[in-house]
Amino acid sequence: MRSWYVIFSLLLGLLAFYSCSESQTEEENLPLDELNAWNLNKQTIQGTTQGTTFLIKTSEDSLLASPKEISDLLHQFDLELSGYIDYSILSKLNDADSLFEVEDNKFFNSCYALSQHVFSKTNGAFDPSVFPLVKAWGFFKDMTNEPSQQEIDSILNFVGFESGHLHTFDGANFTKLHPSFQLDFNGIAQGQSADEIATFLKNRGHENYFVEVGGEIVVAGKNNDGEPWIIGIDEPTEENDGASQRKLENYLSISEGGIATSGNYRKFYKKDGKKYSHTLNPLTGFPVEHNLLSATVIAPNAALADGYATVFMTIGVDSTLSFVASHPEEKIEVYLLFENNFGRIERAFSSGMQSYLLK
Hints:
Helices cover 30% and strands 24% of the residues. The two termini are 14 Å apart. The chain has a domain at 88-176: ApbE-like superfamily (T-fold, Orthogonal Bundle), CATH 1.10.3980. 38% of the residues are buried. By secondary structure, the chain is an alpha+beta fold. Strands 1-2-3-7-8-11-14-15-16 form a 9-stranded antiparallel beta sheet, covered by helices on one side. Residues 1-34 have low confidence and may be disordered.
């Protein structure tokens, strides 16, 4: 019963994202397009960011943070790592022809380092330099024609995140060895933003909290029932859109760590009746084609969970389970949902994931 209560509470909070609580203070009672964060109650802040929603909860007496402080933190994060803001550090870097001086930053350097770590561990299956491929496939606008093999091969000349190949970065000066080299941190930055909020709460003295940004989650301590936090894993079907309805395939019980899920069942592009996955294989340049529908990852932090979830949607079921088993130093666990040869959804998970599952 307690598990269902927590799930219900989280869903109720998500459904209320676009309504302001009567408990707002006068300082915080600003138009949503100015603040984008508000109190649901003294234990909860919610709002919008990065084209999605966020939710922050504590089981302690009250949150030691204001909506404005959270909004400011997320705004600063976007000013560094958003690809949708023309004047962000990332956008200005992508527009630069060669040398770009990275301004004093709180988040860019750590995002770059985390990305290099996952890139190296996965032999390039995670690669933020796929941005030219993302544009070619039209995920930011309508695609007129599917790119040809020749066009993809040409673009791949400018894809490759290893330092010294198409770029160098010493923490201050970013040198692009070709103007077409561009970065897209969407596969890891949202998880990092959840981590940054969690760090903010921890520094304020919180020991029990739940942070969710666009589905990327960080938890610590216990929920209101004194139990581990309960996280639902979505059933990976197109009809399960997370808005008008939400069906859960399983539940995680967890007291510490980052959780992220990537999936192809919602994120795809359709043209002329053909579906194109939003997950691009940076080694081939083409959308992935396999039976893996979703990958849920538990990691020490949400950024790593986010990055590895992206990787696992690229490499598929067998390679994912093999990777997790052979990299215990990463301290990650994974839960996979895939379609079998008869069209039914099956599950597979790493050995350590069993301890988190409620069914």
